[in-house]
Design a protein that fits this description.
Layout lengths: L8 E3 L4 H13 L5 E4 H9 L8 E7 L6 H6 L4 E3 L6 E4 L2 E8 L12 H16 L1 E7 L6 E6 L2 H14 L9 H15 L4 H7 L3 H16 L2 H8 L4 H4 L3 H17 L1
Parallel strand pairs: 1-7, 3-6
Antiparallel strand pairs: 2-3, 4-5, 5-6, 7-8
Helix pairs in contact: 2-5, 2-6, 4-5, 4-8, 5-6, 5-7, 5-8, 6-9, 7-11, 8-9, 8-11, 9-11
Length: 257
């Protein structure tokens, strides 16, 4: 995947310019350590906007002062969402801020596995994010360099998200989560690079991932395929066997580590 100094990742489509400008605003602002995550980061790592997304999810450190939400709220064109503590609209683009802190030995002990996966995967995403050059619609004035979560960290975070969502207003976002996981592994793990990175993740995260991968991609592949059928025709075409084909090698790598 391209990093600063390489050819930029080009995001195409109508929302791309607004998303890239929002990412640029975050990168330039004094928000402390950050990592762009969510659908925008998945698109960047895949090198294509493989599904629609209209907001920018960002992990920040909870010890940064002033808080990232306060910094972004003070920017020109920013409107803070008074109903949601960690949400800012920047020139109409929604920015969701997810705060995490440092994880020490034993900090996850006694925490339910799903919650522990959220904390550990987002903390790792913040720690391991790398710089990527991104341009919207091949327009040089819409080019930014920002820190994006790695493909491996995105898989880990999506494994949490798909297990933590429920149907809202008739929309099942688990379809998109499943599609993101499948594409990241199918497109980027042929050489084993993603599963190798996950197998070398911090031990607390790696241990939780074993169960998550099995539930979502291997033993629970039929259920995940069912969730994906609530998405578009392409998402719905992914079979349980295809999910096991990308999930099995990952599960094996995590277990032998």
């Amino acid at each position: 995947m391209a990093t600063s100094g390489d050819s930029p990742i080009v995001l195409l489509g109508h929302p791309a310019a607004a998303l890239v400008r929002a990412v640029g605003a975050i990168a330039r602002a004094p928000v402390g350590p950050y990592a762009i995550v969510g659908g925008v980061a998945v698109a960047v790592r895949l090198g294509t906007a493989h599904r629609a997304t209209t907001d920018v999810d960002t992990v920040v450190h909870d010890a940064t002062r002033p808080a990232a939400v306060e910094v972004l709220s003070a920017l020109s064109g920013a409107v803070r969402d008074v109903a949601t503590e960690h949400r800012v609209f920047l020139d109409g683009t929604k920015i969701e801020l997810l705060e995490v802190g440092d994880i020490g030995i034993g900090d996850l002990a006694g925490i339910p596995e799903k919650d522990a996966l959220f904390v550990a995967s987002h903390a790792w995403a913040l720690e391991s994010a790398t710089l990527v050059d991104v341009v919207a619609n091949e327009r040089p004035d819409d080019r930014v360099t920002a820190r994006f979560a790695t493909s491996a960290a995105l898989v880990a975070m999506k494994l949490h998200a798909i297990q933590d969502r429920s149907v809202t207003s008739g929309i099942d976002k688990r379809a998109g989560d499943g599609w993101d996981i499948f594409r990241l592994l199918l497109d980027l793990d042929a050489s084993g690079a993603v599963r190798s990175e996950l197998a070398n993740a911090p031990s607390a995260l790696r241990e939780i991932l074993v169960g998550a991968v099995d539930r979502v991609l291997v033993a629970g592949a039929a259920r995940t395929s069912g969730w994906m059928r609530s998405g578009d025709e392409v998402m719905g075409s992914v079979t349980p066997d295809q999910l096991r084909a990308v999930g099995g090698p990952l599960l094996h790598a995590l277990r032998i580590r």
